[in-house]
Structures are given as C-alpha cells and as structure tokens.
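BUG-227 | component: ligand-complex export | severity: low

The export step for adenosine-5'-diphosphate jobs runs without errors, but we want the raw record kept on the ticket for reference. Input record follows.
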Amino acid sequence: SQLVLQNSEKLTVAGQLAAGIAHEIRNPITVIKGFIYLMKSGYGDKEEYFTIMASECERIEQILSELLVLAKPQPIKLEPKDIRFIMMQTVTLLHTQAIMSNVEIATQFEQGVARVYCDENQMKQVFINFIKNAIEAMQTGGTLTIQIKQKDDDHVIVRFIDEGTGIPAEMLKKMGQPFYTTKENGTGLGYMVSKQIVENHSGEVHIESEWNKGTTIEISLPITRNS
Ligand code: ADP
Ligand code: MG
C-alpha cells in the first residue's frame, strides 16, 4: 500500500501528510464498510468478519498514534541525560524481539560520554524505531551493532549498524517521506517521526545503506552545555 505521489516535490510536507493519511485510512475503512454491508445482508461468516474488522481498526489506531507525535507535538522536556542508560533500557525492551529474529545486539559504548539534553521518552521512541527497523531488515538474523561515542566537544553520536537487506539507492531518496514502507504491516511513519524528534532536539540523522549489505543510521546530538 505504497502511496505514489506525482510531483511530490511540489507538495508541502503537510500536503503529503494529508494525502497520505487520507489514502492510508480510507483503505481499512473501505474494508470495514464492506463487511458491515455483507453482515447486514446476512452473508458469510460473522466471526471471520469481526476478526478482520478488528485488525483493520488496529491498523488505523497504529497510524494515528504514530501521527500524533507530529500532529500534537508534546512539549519536549529537555533534561541532561546519559543516553547510554536510555539505550540500555531500550535494548532490554526489545531483547525478546531480537532473539526471536535471530539478531544479536552488540553494544559499544565509549566511556565518559557527555550527557545530552533530551526528552527521555521521545529519545526512547527514536531508539525503538531504529532498532526495530534494523531487526526487521535482518530476516535471516545477524548482528546489530549500536555505538555511542563522543563526536567532538559539542556532539554525541549514536550509530545503528545492521547487516540487513539494505536499501537500494533509488529507495533511499524516499526515506523520510510519510507512508513509504516496504513491509506488509508497516506504517512508513517510524523513520520520519524519529527524524523529526531528533531534529526537534537540534540533532541530525544520517543514513547510509547498501543493498544486500546493510544499513547504518547515525544520529548526532548536541550535548549539555556547562552552566
Ligand atoms: P515501517 O518500518 O513501518 O515500514 P519506517 O518509516 O520505520 O516504516 O521505515 C520505512 C521503510 O524504510 C521500511 O519499510 C524499509 O523499507 C526502510 N528501512 C528503514 N530502516 C531500514 C533498515 N535498517 N534496513 C533496511 N530498510 C530499512
Ligand atoms: Mg519502522
């Protein structure tokens, strides 16, 4: 269910989003409406219809909850945090999913990394999204290496290096466009939302990828100023 926009570069981000939301939400609603009509006419297996309708509702909910991060920008609560700690908590959270996918998560955290002014919950959300994408890209397993190190006096960098499918060059251009997904159950919002959160923290996201080799996502975040 990939949205194809012609002249997409001429659309504003808000315009792309609006078009995407309309498209993505109309599909499940069409399905639900269809089943309601069928049931009204007394056709088919109601139990089966209910299951599909519930899963279509869940899909809408998933899309909306991811969008809310953008639509209702929560006031970011910036506090000096050790992001190695936030990362460890996130890795623990996703440990089971990694094991089930045969993915080993290797952490390489430099000693004495400075604290970063960030909103802990939002940063967790970013880490979850990038780790999930990495795991999902390694269909036959592999190693996800997560590095945290000091870049210079003012920045800390976080790298997610996976051994997954990689992203073909022509697809790389589409990263960050809302609803761009290659997954059957993907929303195509995780990357965009994460990038937005990092930029709200005055940080940057860089992506490097090679088809059949893997992907590296690098986040650069400004550190706490001494005061
Ligand atoms: P979703 O995960 O729901 O598809 P995302 O916005 O998180 O949405 O990612 C969009 C698309 O970018 C994915 O469907 C996938 O094709 C590609 N992608 C993102 N991260 C990676 C990665 N680490 N390796 C390979 N492809 C990736
Ligand atoms: Mg994702």
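Assignee comment: Attached the raw record above. The chain has a mean pLDDT of 87.
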